[in-house]
Amino acid sequence: MVKQLGEAASPTEGLKRLENFARSLRDALQ
Asked: Which range marks the domain in which residue 24 is found?
């Protein structure tokens, strides 16, 4: 999760990546 933020170009993109990551994680768990 931290790696996702570290690779992001900007804080905003980091949040977007985090959102997508959380969403795919939720889908995988269901």
From this structure: 1-30
